[in-house]
Amino acid sequence: MLAGLNAEQRRAVTHGDGGLLVVAGPGTGKTEVITRRIAWLIATRRAKPSEILALTFTEKAAAEMQVRVDQLVPYGFADTAISTFHAFGDRLIREFAYEVGRSPDARVLSRADTVILLREHLFELSLDTYLPLGDPTRFLGALATLFARCRDEDVSPARFAAHAAGLARGAEAALAASRAGGAAGVPDEVATLVETARRQGELAVAYQRYVELLAERGAIDFGDQVSLALHLLRDRAAIRATVQARFRYVLVDEFQDTNRVQAELVAVLAERHGNVTVVGDDDQSIYRFRGAAISNILEFRDRQRGARTIILRRNYRATAPILDAAHRLVRFNDPDRLEARVGISKHLRPERAVRGAAPVRHLAFATGSDEADWIASEIRRRIDAGARPHDFAILTRANADADPILRALNVAAIPWRSTGSSGLYGRPEVRVLLAFLRAIADPSSGPDVYAVAASPVYAFDGADLAAIMGSARARLAAAHGWRSGQRRPPGGGSASLPGSRSPAAGGRGPVRVPEGHRLARPPRGGRIYGRRRGAGQCCPVL
């Protein structure tokens, strides 16, 4: 169970009772430490499997952790609770649903559901500034984001309302002072205070009403899964005692990505016994936009007095030049780093001894196309020198960033394989489904009808599609009495039909649609669909 661990990892795994902070850089085996610590706690009979709770951020990480624990402990014996924060909170809410006024089968609203709920009850939110007459639903997405962030920061409607009331009092005092001073008009800074207080008061009322709407529907949203669980433990002493006795050891992975409400939940769970192990590295924080902060790690040291700190610095993944370059780069975040705040060293040491490891190079290009061309030419040069195409890997920030690089590789005749995903809406079956829905909603949408006809669902072959297109063009021409080959129809601007064939190719020539015309139905009940387009734009017809 302890085989293969270095000295720092072994100390972390065999830590006894009390708080433990493991500062683990990338590639230092932090997941291995957590899983082996769980197995060690079980093997040494310090805790039953059911008395251990491990929390992480993604379902994938939780599943991987579960698999590793199952491999380390006897088969069928590891019923340790390993889950994400939201899954754990959701289980607590459903177990004690009636304590929070919800049903055990309460529906979890997605972001889209939240926006729809706000839109359905738009005029119950008492909005004024955020209810523009021209587009009443303009700010609903921003409101949903604000309410979610309030939950992440552990801000209740009452606390929000108190904050807004404080701003209102301050604005009133400033306004009274300016009037008493005999100022002509309202100074800009006072007007700003008044406007800010009014806006915050409006948002506080809308937030309170949104929470009431959720309660009336017996629903919860994504933020509620953690926020309600925290309030359940805070406000119900009996439930808090039950849950704290159930989980005697709490372990948290990626602690640097916890927001305020998640950190508070961990603190409440470990309040009774203090047996909490958190593993994190502030340099790897990726959830700052959702409230993650270095303060959680610093406050952990304050809350868990006497907590042990172990630093994992042996990297098993990268070579020395990469680790040195990464450390030089991340130090630009000083002094807002744990290394600078606490005075510890996190400079990773490589365990891979690679003789003559190449240094890291940084190249800058004027445009993305220049960068893509350089990458392709550099790979081509090395392939010509004897390298193989599968010896190279190209990493991009997003899938869209790979498109110019893939085009450059095609130009350079370099074979490639992309492991990126185009996302849900890029999958063929989803694109066909969306085309179906758009065609049903707007039968005049030629591209969508064409996509449905050419999809595997109907599987029209090329000859049938060509015949349908030809028939549509012929009926369109007959309906409007246009001459074959006419370049500009009566009425001015034109929009050509794609795929029209010239008379020499056996077709009727290009057919032109008058600008602004809508083709709803051809004569004799034929199936020709068109829609209004701007001048010079295509008007597809099927």
Average pLDDT, rounded to a whole number, is 82
Tally of DSSP β-strands? 12
Q: How much of the polypeptide forms β-strand, as a percent range?
A: 5-15%
Strand order of the largest sheet: 3-2-6-7-1-8
Helix content: 40-55%
How does the overall form come out from the CA principal axes?
globular
Low-confidence residue ranges: 487-542
How many H/I helical runs? Answer: 19
Biggest β-sheet description: 6 strands, parallel
Structural class by helix and strand composition: alpha/beta
Q: What distance separates the N and C termini?
A: 68 Å
Q: Report the radius of gyration as a whole number of Å.
A: 32 Å
Describe the structure.
The structure is a single chain. This protein is an alpha/beta fold and 542 residues long. The protein has 19 helices and twelve strands. It has a six-stranded parallel β-sheet, sandwiched between helices. Strands 4-5 form a two-stranded parallel sheet. It is globular and about 90 Å long. The termini are far apart. 29% of the residues are buried. The C terminus is likely disordered.
